[in-house]
Specification:
The protein is of the alpha/beta class. 37% of the residues lie in helices and 19% in strands. It has helices at residues 20-32, 62-69, 87-108, 128-140, 195-202, 217-221, 225-233, 248-263, 274-280, 291-294, 312-322, 337-340, 345-360, 381-401, 414-424, 468-476, and strands spanning 7-8, 37-42, 54-57, 75-79, 112-117, 147-151, 159-162, 165-170, 173-176, 213-215, 239-243, 268-272, 304-307, 329-333, 365-369, 409-412, 429-437, 440-445, 455-459. The protein has a 15-stranded mixed sheet, with helices on both faces. It has a four-stranded antiparallel sheet with strand order 1-9-8-7, with no helix packed on it. α2 links the parallel β3 (54-57) and β4 (75-79). The protein is globular, with a radius of gyration of 22 Å.
Length: 477
């Protein structure tokens, strides 16, 4: 198969499906005596998009890690927001994270499994984040990591890995990830769709595609537990282990083998999208949330939608929202005033004043950044990232300055949703309630936040159909 060919989505149905009840029983048996706490480091808040009823923290102090490690739940999330960081900031943050986690683990006498939750379209600081974690944890504690598990599969968002090539669903086609708009990301772009080649590309040749271990769909669907476990046991020198997957059953079968290898003394760090976290945390699926679950009856104020993401999918979803028959208020946030006026302060004041007046009247307000951004041609990756952060800070300040509580808040885009959570709402700890649509998580803000008990919907920029945003806003309005 040509690595640059699009595939018809029907190929996903061409693999035999093992009996899931048998797989579930095996997995349950392996979890019975597994005592590691699962710690998920999330590079933006969207990684909670497959789990429910788990805590998420927005700092990484030793005390926070101790709280997470002694919590009753099998796993917890730490929001790092590192996708908005420079390389230097990423190194500093992950060094602190690893040191504080090691110290907390020792203080609590609680071992852990660490998952670095990254983007299912392969953007982010890879392999930098996991490399820093691995090196620091090995220096700080009595641990040695044999391998890194790489699994970007995300069924809810239409991301699949087969024949070691990662695909993004577009309509009825599976498009190699390296051919999508995500691969052209100005901060985290790449060329390779084959995950081994992606590893080689992003590590600048430090890890070769030919040296990676590949867990194939044929092995997984053939329930080759012994063979897959043997491959994991053979990992050494922090080698890369590529996991093919097109359905949750593939992750479950792999998890059986991964648990067996860990119990035999092997240690791994994982870099994955959201589905691996749900299976590793032994969390069962739950029904989607509805308006009745989220909004108190009699709430008079309107809702607030903040749209910062600029990917095409988000712009298309915004267009569909604007076509709604419902009477929403749309406010364009003119980001190019950053260049023309040297500041976004006056734009924040303008939008805030209008937004508050409409929310008070019970209207849902949609604030969206200009869809075209006049970025100077000479801008380097860090400057572009810094500009994104400045824009996000301005949007976030609107939430921070609000004087009345919206009945719900939706943030669209990774950097935007993280900043709204931490800088706008001041969330230190939240509970992941579940998802309102596939891959779209809802947090319940904690008592320390600006608006305690507010449903906060985190809508990834690259998830959902064209009408998904409109459907959510119309339901909650």
């Amino acid at each position: 198969m040509n690595t640059l060919e699009k595939l018809d989505i029907s190929i996903l149905n061409s693999f035999p499906v093992p009996d899931e009840a048998t797989v579930d029983q095996l997995l349950a048996e392996e979890f019975k005596d597994f005592n590691k706490k699962v710690v998920v480091l999330d590079d933006d808040p969207t990684g909670t998009q497959t789990v429910h009823d788990v805590p998420v923290f927005t700092d990484w102090t030793q005390v926070t890690f101790e709280n997470g490690l002694t919590d009753e739940h099998s796993m917890f999330f730490i929001l790092t927001n590192s996708r908005s960081f420079s390389r230097e900031e990423t190194i500093a943050a992950h060094t602190d994270i690893a040191k504080n986690l090691a110290a907390a683990s020792s203080a609590c006498a609680q071992d852990f499994l660490i998952i670095s939750r990254g983007d299912s379209t392969l953007r982010g600081h890879f392999p930098l984040e996991t490399e820093v974690l691995k090196n620091t944890l090995e220096q700080e504690g009595n641990v040695h990591y044999d391998g890194e598990i790489i699994c970007p599969f995300f069924m809810e968002g239409g991301r699949y890995t087969l024949n070691n090539i990662h695909y993004v669903k577009e309509g009825n086609a599976l498009v190699p990830a390296g051919m999508t708009e995500f691969a052209k990301d100005k901060s985290f772009g790449y060329n390779a769709s084959h995950l081994g080649e992606y590893v080689e590309e992003k590590s600048q040749g430090a890890y070769k595609a030919s040296d990676c271990t590949y867990i194939s769909l044929e092995q997984l669907r053939g329930c080759d537990y012994d063979g897959i476990t043997a491959q994991l046991m053979a990992a050494s020198d922090y080698s890369k282990i590529i996991v093919n997957a097109i359905d949750y059953i593939d992750i479950k079968i792999f998890m059986v083998c991964w648990l067996r290898a860990m119990k035999a003394g092997k240690n791994y760090i994982a870099r994955s999208a959201a589905p691996l976290t749900r299976v590793a945390g032994n969390i069962l699926p739950a029904p989607l949330l509805t308006k009745k679950d989220l909004i108190e009856e009699g709430t008079r104020e309107g809702g607030l939608v903040i749209i910062g993401s600029h990917v095409k999918k988000t712009s298309d979803q915004l267009d569909a929202l604007m076509a709604s028959d419902k009477n929403f208020t749309f406010l364009e946030f003119f980001v190019d005033r950053y260049f023309t006026e040297g500041s976004l302060d006056r734009e924040v004041e303008r939008v805030l004043t209008i937004a508050q007046s409409y929310i008070q009247l019970g209207k849902t307000v949609v604030i969206y950044t200009s869809r075209q951004l006049l970025v100077p041609d000479t801008a380097d990756k860090d400057k572009i990232l810094k500009l994104s952060v400045n824009i996000s800070d301005a949007l976030t300040s609107i939430v921070r300055l609000l004087s009345l509580k919206p009945k719900f808040i939706i943030a669209k885009g990774g950097i935007t949703s993280s900043d709204v959570a931490t800088k706008g709402l001041g969330i230190k700890k939240a509970r992941v309630m579940g998802q309102i649509k596939k891959g779209i998580p809802v947090w319940l803000s904690g008592p320390e936040s600006k608006f305690p008990g507010t449903p906060y919907i985190i809508f990834p920029g690259n998830v959902g159909d064209v009408t998904t945003l409109r459907e959510i806003v119309e339901e909650l309005d």
